[in-house]
Write a structure and sequence with these properties.
heterodimer, A: mainly beta, 26-stranded antiparallel beta barrel, B: 11-stranded antiparallel beta sheet, globular
């Protein structure tokens, strides 16, 4: 065909060279069918013969006649398109006369079979490419499990005999290709008999040169029918994976690997890691690759309430451990899991299993100063902790969209945990002189499991804007733990003496919760909606704590043992009115909630009650206002007001104290009322899409009506020393304002960006110490600024500075007011200095100050790494990294609240060097990443 | 109307052109897939593109309805009042951007109103010709047999496929697409990065109410 075209063009050019052709011509003709009947209103097109570009078009008259008047006299490809006829093509040479009259053009009808079966019934596109006719096989329905042979039997124009021999348009099909490749030898039947029809998307039938012609390159004129079966996209499999091993000085090591297989509908992944470099979990990138299409989900917790804004995507539950190392101590970590996702747009199924464990060894010292009305005392604390935690986590989520009006979501999560810890703690108490030293040796072992499940069904009524959602949930948890406590208390008084306490505690807790919610939305008009919801939940909790004395035959210590059984019934009914139009969404509503607590307390199961059963009913009304306004030019304004009610925690209601440390005693308060708070939030955000400038500000104000505070009684008790007793009580409550802003502005577009951020917080919190009320005023601010400079794709420089100031003022003991200052400066470089070689360096200089205590610590940390990519596609990466080159790492915290100030210093991983090797099946990224360091 | 059209299609194709004055409205479902759009962006690495496609999957689609009102000589394309994602936002209303595209094929003029990077633009110009290449593929779209045409935008690095109806001699089409011998019923940009297809057979007919909005 191509050769023919070329020949024709050559002939046209050569003839035009000899003859004087007119510069303009008129092309005319008549369109007829094969019987000579004129076809009216046919589409007639003049195309460029080289690339089929459309030059001009016309419609034939009711007599089938068409003409293109005074068109440029060049070669054209004439194309005629007519419903139910095959597209007609004819090459028109340069005309020798002013009127180029074409003899009647006869166009062929599409066989009825092709037209009615392929196009009309199966809605399959039909491609006519030279002599290839192709149609979409997925449109032909065959029962599941059918072979390609069964499918071919249904295709018009194709015959399959009893032996499986295929004929297309009456001729034998000699070859069958799959995705253009030969399928297991030359027998065409092997592919058609073995492949499942559902894996095929397209069937193409075409003429092929004979094997002989292909071999010799000499056209022998013989053509054979061949068939190509194209596989569906989802049966085209993909996979990726990565494997890393690293070894370092000071016995440091790390290993990590993941492997994923996927097709258009399914994703399967496995992930494993282990290290002793304080990486307790996965990072964001690992998480996304592991969870795949289930990384983000709509927020669907089933507890319906006031609508708060547009629905957003949320990350699923914390079923996989993220790297959340808090900077203290040394950890050994391991974890592994697998994940499966299915998604065919109507049905989504995700399930995953993950196991992880962390062994923490911590050495920490802290200095805590506690202020009393006219005195203060100091406690110096050294803690040695060995802590082991492990979790098995299984989670699954199923979503089915039955049709556009009905959706069902079912979620479930099951977790088994084991925790084991051993703390050795030495506490020294002093007023002006040391009073006593307390040595604690506590061991704890806890096994627990937790099941949570939710089902949500949403229905959309025919009436626009009317919808109903119903949810149900069941949660159950069980824990079983033992604690072995041992303490020695030495007193430095006139006569030094020692006091020993031994205790063996067993704790058994169970909790069951059954809940259900309904949400009904009705549209009152195009812009007004009425929403109502109802929540019901019934919870039962059982706590059994038995304290025994191992030195006296494991006799129970009655004042410390408790068994309690609580039932909580929760009802909430709410209704709101919403205005939604053109980016303005305002909701205002009211809810009433009733909370019924029923509790009974005894020393152990089946023993007489210690107090009369506690029965509390709390009824509260809570108003709610939310406004989200989208302004032109990418500005958004949000406002919300809510009145929140938080019921007391059960452990705060128990009448029996919890004493794990003789110097610290936690009491409960059965008369505690729920905490109520007003909360106002205002936020504004702007971004400029042309230069990526961005500005966000958020202010939040909270006022507590009936705050639950922990009143302290600090006494000097014989044989115990300074003892702190806490007891939850309701007080008028404090308030707080917190605000933050974030601004991003490109000084030179894409090259130099400045970012500023900060927050400002004011709060006052009441506290009760020895029945004297103290107000703690804390005001703090944080300002940071960073500059990012990217001169080209091979270099990224950034500098960041941060200043944090916190002032703490007390209403009693004003001389104890604190000023805490933490500053830091951070500089980093990423440089692709020669092809495939990268240098990354990060230097951080932090200082921690507290003038009142003359505390001033400065810590410089410098990390440096060089990496190189190897092999084609950069499949291997080798990296040499130095962590904390200056060997100065130390974890420092400064904190001041209520009536004390605490400074904590902990040892953690300091200088080490590490060599790592990573194999990435898909090759490593050779571009520098703007965010995050890849240490 | 649908029955008539189908009959016209397969039994009496001659009769169809008796109605030379086609006018009406076609509602298109516009689907944008931003994971596929991202795949065409040069400054993002291959690995990051693959990760986005793997993590977002079918959630990377964004759907909307747009209406095309037309007569043989003029057309207007604009956003529909109806939401194509009824389950997404529970009646939450987003601000509508300024958007319409008008074509006058007799005068060869266009008037487009669009909001771009936070600014409103009114573009009045001659209709920009599109270099369509006509292919030999046929397919049925909403009861009409359509022929395939392709074009390329070298500036935006886009490959576009349009399917135009053999039996609707109207030059109009969705978005900025027009200039084919038949009305454009389906468009695909960059292999699914964005697609336009008529909402059918949900409607009683393709032209389900007259072109009042013109």
């Amino acid at each position: 065909m191509k050769k023919l075209k070329a020949l024709a063009i050559f002939l046209l050019i050569s003839t035009s060279a000899f003859a004087q052709n007119p510069s303009k011509t008129t092309i005319q003709g008549i369109v007829q069918d094969t019987f000579g009947t004129e076809l009216p209103f046919a589409m007639v097109m003049l195309l460029n013969p080289k690339d089929s570009a459309l030059i001009q078009f016309a419609q034939s008259s009711d007599k089938g006649a068409f003409s293109f008047k005074n068109v440029k006299n060049i070669a054209y490809l004439l194309k005629i398109s007519y419903v139910a006829y095959l597209p007609y093509q004819q090459l028109l040479p340069v005309s020798t006369s002013e009127i180029h009259d074409l003899s009647p053009i006869k166009i062929k009808p599409i066989t009825k079979e092709l037209l009615e079966v392929v196009i009309k019934t199966a809605k399959a596109p039909l491609s006519i490419r030279g002599d290839t006719i192709e149609y979409n096989a997925s449109s032909f329905k065959v029962p599941p499990g059918s072979s390609v042979e069964d499918l071919l039997r249904r295709l018009p124009g194709i015959d399959v005999d009893a032996d499986g021999n295929i004929k297309a348009q009456g001729k034998d099909v000699k070859k069958v290709y799959v995705d253009g490749k030969t399928f297991f030898g030359s027998d065409p039947k092997s592919a058609t008999k073995t492949l499942d029809a559902h894996t095929i998307s397209k069937v193409q039938v075409f003429n092929e040169k004979s094997e002989q012609a292909k071999l010799t390159g000499v056209e022998d004129g013989k053509k054979e029918k061949a068939m190509n079966l194209e596989l569906k996209e989802e049966f085209k499999k993909g996979s990726f994976g990565k494997l890393t091993g690293a070894i370092g000085t000071a016995n440091r090591w790390a290993a990590r690997g993941n492997y994923n297989r996927f097709n258009a509908k399914e994703q399967f992944s496995i992930l494993g890691f282990g290290n002793n470099i304080n990486q307790t979990g996965v990072n964001w990138e690992d998480y996304g690759e592991f969870k795949g299409q289930n990384t983000f989900n709509n927020e669907d917790n089933g507890d319906f309430g006031f609508s708060s804004g547009p629905r957003r995507f949320y990350r699923m539950e914390d079923d996989i451990p993220f790297n959340n190392f808090d900077g203290r101590g040394f950890t050994k970590n391991g974890g592994a899991g697998l994940n499966y996702n299915f998604d065919d747009k109507k049905t989504k199924l995700n399930s995953s299993y993950f196991f992880n464990q962390t062994q923490l060894n911590l050495n920490q010292t802290s200095r805590r100063q506690t202020f009393l009305k006219d005195s203060s005392f100091l406690s110096l604390d050294t803690l040695q902790q060995a802590d082991f935690r492990s979790n098995h986590n299984m989670s699954t989520r199923f979503e089915r969209e039955f049709d556009s009006t009905n959706v069902l979501i079912i979620k479930g999560n099951l977790r088994f945990s084991h925790a084991n810890s051993h703390d050795i703690q030495n506490q020294l108490f002093a007023k002006t002189m040391p009073t006593n030293a307390l040595n604690l040796d506590n061991q704890e072992n806890l096994k627990s499991y937790r099941l949570s499940s939710t089902a949500i069904f949403r229905h959309r009524f025919k009436k626009k804007g009317r919808s109903l959602a119903v949810s149900g949930g069941y949660n159950k948890s069980l824990s079983d733990g033992t604690e072995q406590l041992f303490s020695i208390n030495r007193f430095f008084q006139a006569t030094t003496f020692t006091e020993q306490v031994r205790q063996l505690n067993t704790n058994e807790n169970t909790a069951n919760q059954l809940k259900s919610s309904v949400l009904f939305t009705e549209s009152l008009s195009k812009k007004w909606f009425w929403e109502s919801f109802y929540n019901l939940s019934q919870a039962q909790n059982e706590v059994r704590r038995q304290v025994k004395n191992p030195e006296r035959n494991h006799e129970r210590i009655d004042p410390l043992s408790v068994f309690y059984d609580n039932k909580v019934l929760y009802n909430r009914l709410g209704s709101s009115l919403r205005y939604s139009h053109q980016g303005v969404n305002i909701t205002s509503g009211l809810a009433v909630q009733q909370l019924q607590l029923n509790g009974s307390y005894s020393i152990d199961r089946n023993l007489p009650l210690l107090t009369a059963p506690i029965q509390n009913t709390y009824i509260n009304f809570s108003p709610n206002v939310t406004a989200n306004i989208e302004l032109p030019n990418h500005k958004y304004l949000g406002f919300s007001y809510g009145y929140n009610v938080k019921e007391p925690q059960l452990s705060d209601l128990q009448p029996v104290p919890n004493v794990n440390n003789p110097a610290f005693r936690a009491e409960g308060n059965p008369n505690l009322q729920p905490e109520r708070s007003h909360q106002v939030n205002l936020d504004f955000n702007y971004w400029n899409p042309s230069n990526f400038a961005n500005f966000n500000i958020n202010v939040e104000y909270q006022k507590l009506d009936n705050q639950i505070i922990y009143a302290q009684t600090i006494e000097n008790i014989d044989k115990i020393g300074i003892r702190t007793t806490t007891r939850p009580e309701n007080r008028a409550g404090g308030q707080q304002i917190s605000s933050w802003f974030w601004i991003n502005y490109p000084i030179i577009k894409t090259k130099l960006t400045v970012t500023g951020n900060g927050n400002l917080d004011f709060s006052n919190t009441p506290s009760l110490v020895n029945r004297i009320q103290n107000e703690t005023y804390t005001n703090g601010g944080d300002v940071g600024m960073s500059l990012n400079f990217t001169p080209d794709s091979k270099l990224i420089l950034s500098v960041r500075g941060n200043v944090r100031m916190t002032n703490i003022e007390y209403s009693i003991q004003k001389e104890q007011n604190q000023k805490i200052r933490n500053h830091s400066i951070d500089a980093s470089v990423k440089w692709n200095f020669i092809p495939k070689m990268y240098l990354e360096s990060n230097f951080n200089y932090a200082s921690f100050q507290n003038e009142r205590f003359g505390f001033n610590q400065k810590i410089p940390i410098w990390n440096l790494s060089v990496r190189r990519l190897f092999m084609k596609e950069n499949k291997i990466e080798m990296r040499l990294a130095a962590f904390d080159l200056l060997n100065r790492t130390l974890s420092i915290r400064q904190n001041g609240t209520q009536n004390y100030v605490i400074q904590t210093t902990a040892q953690t991983l300091a200088r080490y060097f590490m060599l790592s090797l990573t194999y990435n099946m898909k090759g490593h990224d050779d571009k520098l990443k703007k965010n995050g360091m890849s240490f | 109307m649908k029955k008539i059209l189908l009959n016209l299609l397969f039994i009496a194709p001659i009769a169809i052109n008796a109605q030379q004055n086609f006018e009406g409205m076609v509602q298109y479902l516009v689907v944008q897939n931003w994971a596929k759009k991202l795949a065409a962006v040069p400054y993002i690495s291959k690995q990051q593109k693959e990760r986005v496609a793997y993590m977002w999957g079918s959630r990377s689609e964004w759907k909307a309805y747009n209406n095309l009102y037309f007569t043989p000589t003029v057309s207007k394309y604009e956003a529909s009042e109806e939401s194509a994602e009824p389950n997404a936002d529970d009646n939450y209303s987003w601000r509508k951007e300024l958007f319409f595209m008008k074509r006058d094929f007799d005068k060869n003029t266009m008037t487009d109103a669009i909001e771009h990077l936070g600014k409103n633009y009114l573009i009045e110009d001659e209709i920009q010709p599109i270099e369509w290449k006509i292919q030999n593929d046929l397919k049925e779209v909403a009861g009409h047999i359509c022929m395939k045409a392709v074009t390329e935008d070298t500036l935006k690095n886009q490959k576009m496929v349009a399917w135009f109806a053999q039996d609707i001699p109207i030059k109009a089409g969705p978005d900025q697409f027009s200039g084919l011998p038949g009305m454009i019923l389906e468009v695909d940009i960059n292999d699914g990065a964005a697609t336009c297809s008529p909402v059918f057979p949900k409607r009683r007919s393709l032209f389900w109410y007259p072109a009042m909005a013109l």
